[in-house]
Amino acid sequence: MFKISIKENLEEVRTRIDKALSSKGKTVDDIVLIAVTKTKGVDMINEAIALGTTDIGENKVQEIQDKYEMIEGNPRIHMIGHLQTNKVKYIIDKVDLIHSLDRKSLAVEIQKRAEQKGIVAEVLIQVNVAEEESKFGLKVEEVASFAESLLSYPNIKVKGLMTIAPYEEDPEKTRYVFRTMKELYEEIKSKNYSNFDMEYLSMGMTNDYEIALEEGANMIRVGTGIFGKRNYN
Question: For residue 178, what is the domain's CATH number?
Answer without folding.
Answer: 3.20.20.10
